[in-house]
Design goal:
With about 270 residues, this protein is α/β, with parallel strands linked by helices. It folds into two domains: about 10-90, no CATH class; about 125-265, 3-Layer(aba) Sandwich (Rossmann fold), CATH 3.40.50.150. The chain has helices at about 20-45, 50-70, 75-90, 95-110, 115, 125-135, 150-160, 175-180, 215-225, and strands spanning about 140-145, 165-170, 190-195, 205-210, 235, 250, 260-265. The protein has a seven-stranded mixed sheet. α1 (about 20-45) crosses α2 and α2 runs antiparallel to α3. The longest helix is centred in the N-terminal third of the chain and has 27 residues, at about 20-45. The radius of gyration is 22 Å and the shape is elongated. The two termini are about 15 Å apart.
Length: about 270
């Protein structure tokens, strides 16, 4: 079956509401409903709640609404945390410029999530070592990490495989800048590009690695099957391709907390 014939593999509609907008609207709707309910309780029964009680109600209601809208799993954690964090910040005397710095940090690190629907997921050393073990031995290769973050995986592999070429692609400004600065005075065979993976030609690489999010994996697979050359490897950590069985699965971190999988497809 041609992958494009599977409904799941059509690219998301351009006019679809971004998840971050949905999440923000849920917060505003919840806040409005909570304020209205508190006002009615006060006028009708003289009931007044403390600020902490109000925030807990807000967190609970927005969590329920988030689950009903079927946003990705991490929103169920972030949504109730927002009002709780605001309560903590209200009770702690923090200089206003700290909030500005924090806002700029998150803006430069995560602003692209609005467009790509891919938040920053850092991988770990066991994953890097497992990826190293999958690369062909005794021959130079071209490797790309699409969504390379702060460049940890790419730099780790480049130090072990100096005969090969490694590339990291990151659209968020701050992680890309940190990656670039890490190789500024090095002779490693590495380059970091600030771009979206959609602008790449996968045919230029022997191995493509992705640690993105479930939301974009169908579109990534379409690009993989369309562009990657025969015999190349596509590797995804934690997130499989729907309805496409992997050729090999590896479990680099076997523990009760983390039992994520590395999925490998040979094109």
């Amino acid at each position: 079956m041609d992958v494009e014939d599977i409904g799941l593999f059509h690219s998301p509609k351009r006019n679809a509401v971004p998840p971050i907008i949905t999440a923000l609207l849920l917060q505003l709707v919840t806040l409005g409903c909570v304020v209205l309910a508190l006002y009615l309780l006060w006028r009708s029964f003289g009931v007044k709640l403390s600020l902490t009680q109000v925030v807990l109600v807000q967190a609970l209601v927005v969590l329920c609404l988030t689950r009903l809208t079927r946003l990705d799993w991490w929103w169920s954690t972030l949504q109730p945390l927002l009002p709780l964090c605001m309560l903590v910040m209200h009770s702690v005397a923090i200089p206003s410029w700290c909030y500005l710095l924090l806002f700029l940090f998150f803006l430069l690190s995560y602003w692209s999530t609005f467009q790509t629907r891919v938040p920053y997921f850092p991988s770990t050393l066991p994953v890097w070592n497992a990826i190293d073990g999958l690369l062909p031995l005794n021959q130079p290769i071209s490797f790309v990490d699409i969504g390379s973050g702060f460049g940890g995986l790419v730099l780790h592999l480049a130090k072990r495989r100096p005969e090969s070429q490694f590339c990291g692609v990151e659209i968020a400004p701050l992680p890309w800048l940190v990656s670039f600065l890490r190789i500024f005075h090095s002779n490693l065979p590495v380059r970091f590009i600030r771009s979206n993976y959609e602008q790449l030609n996968f045919a230029e690489f022997d191995v493509v690695f992705a640690y993105l999010s479930p939301a974009v994996m169908p579109a990534v697979w379409m690009k993989v099957t369309r562009e990657m050359k025969k015999g190349a490897l596509f590797i995804s950590y934690e997130f499989p391709i729907p309805q496409v069985e992997a050729d090999l699965c590896i479990y680099p971190e076997k523990s009760v907390i983390n039992n994520a999988t590395i999925f490998i497809w040979r094109i």
